[in-house]
């Protein structure tokens, strides 16, 4: 006769070392877990609170420039390589990991206005107020700090008639585009622009190539316009005129036809380039002009730097920022960049510093154990699940703001409300239909020019 | 100067001379152009002269020329108006006056040069006015002389400017008269005709001329190019459209990414393990030793690794002779089989006999009928066909062919087409015939068509005659069954041969025989009691069937409405509520088997029944919610109310009476009530219930069974006797209100306090207490009146709020969710490891983006397979939609003005 016994092998449950993990046996019977939702809610609440505790986004500052940082460019091949330029004509190559200048590129007289690195990460294009575009060689590997002795000489110099305001490099070929009084298309190997576009008389403020549909690029100009161009067509495509100037555009690297523009009115507007008559999304929260915008390479979020001395991170389809970064000493932000892996931010501001931030404020840096990863994933999932509950959403939403920004926000809200109220009253007292209801996404668009 | 001065004075005498000169001048101009201009013979004269031949003509030409030089020689020539003055084709510059006084030493060659500068002043004419003019000019001249030289020069320059020609044509051999205002088409320029003149004899001249004529006919002017701004705009527009279309190719990929639960970035690219050959191919010798080895290898012709590899691969690929032979044989066999099949199919196709094809089809069908799946498929196919027919009315003489034939009249055609039309109509009626139940669709069709003859006239009303016939038939079937039972022998082998099995079979058979006998008895009884049929409910099943069937379907019946058609419905019912029904139909009962025999229905009904009975997991006794009746009367009435009445019968079970009436008493509302009743009442009420249900719809004969006298209200009143729902609700509401807005006890005086003298007693409660109580009452009343359900007598809206629970409730349904239920569902199940398996936890908690630390994320690359798939998808969608639209159009056009029977 066979007798069944409940046995427990000693070997299976003895740890060899004290660090060894023991398997936990769980009974998944739902009747044994009557409080499951309550448990998870509490976990979510704790996770949100802990997130606040650990939210320390500032990593460090790269100091060295003697004037406000006007533009940044990241190296598409190397994560730790960043190029910055300042308003005094200084261009620096940084080793981000060590927070030090690796190389300087002297040559520009007057402010440098545009920087771009070629796709292969070997060439740097800079342009500025001195009407010169310079092409530099970026050293492949760098050791030690720049001493100022090894002076880099530009590989090529291109002379223009007017001051240049911006430059961007093609994502595939050796073509770059400058903007100033007109849009010029240059080749590394030609001294003259291969093509020029003019449409209207105003100066071009920014130009950005589309990373995925590489021959398409967008410019913004001081006539409050955003214009689209196609190198294959050899012609401008379309122009969108808004009520206020657009300072910068950034293409979504994962959605070839979508781009986001940083506007002077403190909002960012996302557009589908195929339907320019309305914005796909308005991203608001800044209280002053947005100076720069850059998409994360994941295409799921973008960072903006504003004249109100804050940096914000927006979801690509969200109306409000999910994060705001500021420090006491950071001045007007002129340039922001996401790092190539989408987990860090770089910001250049008027206070001559380049600051390094985390993409997620409370992210744990360094190598994570699988268990830690799982824990983080679980906590964020739980948080996501209960984020609509009042307590959690309140804690999650809360951000401390500098007093001037906070007050300015209030003022903006008040004025917005007043305007809305005025409009509604006007509508109420006018003949029905005489004052049309313009959706907010269309309101700021003046015209779409063909 | 002298000449000039003399000019005006002697101009009358000079007139003739001037004319002469003028003619000379003109002639010289004509000659210089190589053209015949100036004085010529009159056309009539020329015609006359033509007759004399060439020689004569040449002569006359010479004469003409002579004439022109020496006027007044052969004939008088009077020019009516000089061509330049007539201004015919604007061949000449417009000059006011062409008469000048010429100096005595006049030379033809210098005229042009001088006329520019001085010709103006030398003009004069015969007229008096002209004289005055001339005098004026003279004055001007004097002035000009006396004026300052510079001024004069200026004037001259300006004058020169006036005369200056704008030559829009460059000087060239093809444009000989650049100064002329006329273009190429003028006589002085070169015309196309002239150029073509020299080509008269060459081959292909005709074609050329034709083309020229065509060109002239068309003569469309070429539009000037658009202004640059417009041009650029057009370019931009086209460019934008092109780029827009181009960039849309990313759409499917973007969509996919957006919908993805998790995005994976910079994942490791799959490293294809490269072969040694590939590695070797890439290898370039760098060190000395490597180079040396490479040179040795190349010398010995072993260096080319690729070649070696290829040779090896070829060696390995070789097949044996046997393998090849086998393969060839296999292929040959397949080929011959294919050929045979094709040949056979072709032969069959060529056979024109319809009978043959029908037989073949039947054969095929029979093969299909054997298994249930095929039967189901066939039914489905048939249903599709029917639906199609209803939609398109394809066989109802809608085709062009049919219309044409009908238009011409059927008589004129030979029998063939008439038959064809009749055939079509038959098909139509077959396909659109109302079928009572899905189960009747295909298998019963043959049988019903056979029975059409005798049952066709059977409609809603079940005439006594038909009933009799049916009864006879049922009887016959029962007798047959009885005989069959008796004849059937018990198996002698196998499982059924076991003694207990045999016994059981015997018993079963006996039972069924008994039942059959009972049925037979009933049938006979029914035959006898046909007259009293109307008032008796407890009749035999067969009749009952009919009544139920006709009333039950709720639809007007058409065509084939024989008993078999109704039976399935009936049977379902009886199965569902067998027990309860048996209580009512106390007398007669048929077992299922016998019913089958009566019906004579095919195997597939039985199959259905089997399915049905097995699908009911609960034992019938326990679960006897019997849908006794569901009558839909008056389909044309839009407001069909449904009153569901649950009757609780303690001994029996639950009964659901679903009665639908067209009455408007309970307009648009659906009420559900529960009422306890005792069985006695039910027995009394059911007939009346049914009667009242059916009184509206009512022509059915079967409904005569039921009492008509009772009204709907009465019915409901009876059904809910002793059930005061209203009072109960009021009470409940009051209780709820007390709970939510509690009555607060105001201040009261102590009992006995101040009541010991009659004076105080008189005073009653002190004023402040009364006031307080009053105010409290008012407060409560105000709170009650503020409630949402204050004015709604029969509605109770709870306004209870649990503060502690509110912490766990979202204030409203958050954005992406539409309804509360969906949102709640998302947070219903826990996701932690304590409650789920490891894998499901991982699945549920996977973050939306997964990226590797420290690896650059590249921009999106175009995935052509996704693009292609999306294109295919779109294409298929388009095709589908188009097909749908087409069929829709077809249907709608066909159905125009026709009623669709559904």
UniProtKB/TrEMBL annotation, chain A:
PROSITE patterns the record matches: WD_REPEATS_1, WD_REPEATS_2, WD_REPEATS_REGION
Segments of this protein annotated with the region Disordered: 410-450
Compartments it resides in: Nucleus, Nucleolus
Domain Sof1-like protein: 360-445
Keyword Ribosomal protein: no
Coiled coil residues, start to end: none
SMART domains named among the record's database cross-references: WD40
Keyword Nucleus part of the UniProt annotation: yes
Pfam families in the record: Sof1, WD40
Keywords on record: Nucleus, Repeat, Ribonucleoprotein, WD repeat
WD repeats: 62-104, 105-138, 283-314, 326-367
Matches recorded under InterPro entries: Sof1, WD40/YVTN_repeat-like_dom_sf, WD40_PAC1, WD40_repeat_CS, WD40_repeat_dom_sf, WD40_rpt, WD_repeat_DCAF13/WDSOF1
First-listed, main subcellular location of the protein, grouped into a coarse class: nucleus
Family note: Belongs to the WD repeat DCAF13/WDSOF1 family.
Record protein name field: DDB1- and CUL4-associated factor 13
Organism: Sphagnum jensenii
UniProtKB/TrEMBL annotation, chain B:
This protein's UniProt keywords: Nucleus, Phosphoprotein
Predominant location: nucleus
Source organism superkingdom: Eukaryota
Location of the region described as Disordered in the Swiss-Prot/TrEMBL record: 1-182, 217-240, 425-461, 546-596, 881-902
Segments of skewed composition (Polar residues): 427-440
Compositionally biased intervals (Basic and acidic residues): 85-94, 148-164, 230-240, 569-578
Biased amino acid composition, Acidic residues: 75-84, 114-133, 447-458, 579-596
Subcellular location: Nucleus, Nucleolus
InterPro entries named in the record: SSU_processome_Utp14
Nucleus recorded as keyword: yes
Name assigned to this protein: U3 small nucleolar RNA-associated protein 14
